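User: Quick sanity check before I run a bigger batch. Here is a single chain. Can you write out its predicted 3D structure?
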Amino acid sequence: MIKKIASRNKFRYVLIVSMSLMWIVVYLQRVNIGALLVDARFLQELGLVGQTAQQGLLMTVFLLVYSLANIAAVPISNRLGSRKAILLGIFIASGAMLAGGWMGSLAAILMVRVLLGIGNGIHFPNMSILVKRWFPPHERGTANSMYGVGGCVGMIVAFPLFSTINSRLGWEFSFFIPALLALLCTFPLWMRWISDRPQDNPYISKEEINYITASYQNHQTHVPETAPKIAGDKSLLLNPSFILLCIAYTAFLCSWWGILTWMPQYLVQARQFDINGTSNNLALAYLVAAVGILTGGRWVDRAERKSSIAILALVCVAVATLGIALVSSPVLAIVFMVMAVGINEFVYPAVWSMLQMLMPDSLMAAGAGIMSGVSNLMSAVSPFAIGWLIQMSGSYVGGLLFLVTISGLGAVSCVLLYQQGY
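Assistant: Done. Predicted structure follows.
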């Protein structure tokens, strides 16, 4: 079957589908916390009942370490190559998850989250590196969305799966099961379906290699003439376009992590949905997100200026999040939540496609690692800040207004990118 796909000059899609499947399982590892925050036994055993700030800390600690690991892992990616770096990341994360099921204290679970952040931080930037090397510029929006949709699918599966696991087997198995699934998903890496470059792959046809590599000959024509150029690692951090991309990606991540962490509890406690109703509503939201990211990827490939997609999306996310906070009807709150989660996904392929336009191949590892790391670092305060605002005000409105403000800031950064020609 693999040879048949390769003969059709479409082997690059084997790579991207394999990456997407791995990313589904990686997301199951990192977001089991969302379901655990509404599991009475877990909260009781770890002393987290009523401690919303400490509950938010479980996600914030992961995000802080994950952010730093994205940056620190740049030399690892350059030295090992993307295939081996992804393998290393999965092994570290799965080992941490296997240990997590045996832990019975907040401090121990926080250490598991630290190791999980390291493993995921090594893994993530390498997917963008592979997209740049394996796909021509006019296909990268779709490619970015195809592996990114793994996170959405993971979220569709996560809450129903972990709710069932927690109720029938116990919260410990919400650590064991994702760890084992991730190890199974390393099969494409061992079989070398995924390689650092098309030229290194034993399955791909020469015609497909020529099709991919031909795009690099005209790489500079895809960078707007008005955009500030990047000469090396030092100038990367001061490049205005790169800084604006980091702000836009931060806005996307603040809404992603904030809604991902707090919506289960918000729907149960503030809107009086039961666990089953909450599970169904969250599954619907992330199903719409999956459609959103795939649709957004296609739109990004067709858009002359990719930032236009991100501008429209971030403005709509701000309006939808405001709706969640202000409407009195629980049903309308669900509608606005679904809109916010789904439309936010249009930002993802736009931002990563713009980064792949901006970065030369020699700086792609640094660019992907630093943008992901810095943006995740800045957005890491989002779950904790929302939890603190909820605890201080006694209402979820303050936390949601925080997300509205951040989305507006992201939209402004994309307007400036549009003016630069992106």
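The mean pLDDT is 86.

User: Great, the batch can go ahead then.
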